[in-house]
Amino acid sequence: MYKNGRDVLRASGAAQSLHDEVIAIAAAQIEDDGYIVETNPGPEKNRSIAKGQWPDIVASSTNEARSTLFLEWVFEVETADSVTREQAVNQWAGYAETASALAARFALIVPFESVAQARALLDEYGIEGPLFYFEQNKGKVTVSLDDQR
Question: pTM score, two decimals?
Answer without folding.
Answer: 0.87
